[in-house]
Amino acid sequence: MTAYHQQTNGLTERFNKTLADMLSMYVDVEQRNWDAILPSLTFAYNSAKQDTTGFSSFFLVHGRDIETPFDVILPHDTENHADNYVQQLITMAEEARQLVKLHILDAADKPRYDNRHRPVNYNVEDLVWVFTPVRKVELSEKLLRRYFGP
């Protein structure tokens, strides 16, 4: 039964944590609007370029970037005809797979903390975010705001 145990799927668990963190930033105080903001958050997650792969999740699944209303307004490439589209899609998907392999290998070689760590110096009267673990009855702890600040 281990295969069906949710904690054994690290990728899903990591996504769930990311989604819960994103929801906690936008959910209202009573946590009643999470279902209304969920589509926007999943759109943002799927269209965002991932650090490890160098591509968005949408691109890796569909072989193209998401088209937003803003993209429709701006001029775009009209040379992609239907007869070339399938071949271009196959070529782009294979190139993306090869690049993802390289990016993952490169990311595995570098210690993640060292790449992202920046020394921080605080001065008196600087505005900062304060970690305040708050628990409220009948509200999900995962969706509560963890930091309060200026």
Tell me what you see in this structure.
The protein has a domain at 6-109. 50% of the residues lie in helices and 3% in strands. The protein has helices spanning 10-26, 34-47, 57-62, 69-73, 82-109, 112-116, and strands spanning 130-131, 147-148. The mean pLDDT is 81. This is Integrase catalytic domain-containing protein.
**Number of helical regions:** 6
Shape: extended
Strand order of the largest sheet: 1-2
Poorly predicted parts: none
Summarize the biggest pleated sheet: 2 strands, antiparallel
Helix content: 40-55%
Distance between the termini: 48 Å
**What is the gyration radius calculated from CA atoms?**
21 Å
InterPro entries: Integrase_cat-core, Retrovirus_Pol_polyprotein, RNaseH-like_sf, RNaseH_sf
Protein name: Integrase catalytic domain-containing protein
Organism: Araneus ventricosus
GO molecular function: nucleic acid binding
Q: Which key terms come to mind for this protein?
A:
50% helix; Integrase catalytic domain-containing protein; RNaseH_sf; single chain; mainly alpha; extended; Retrovirus_Pol_polyprotein; nucleic acid binding; 2 strands
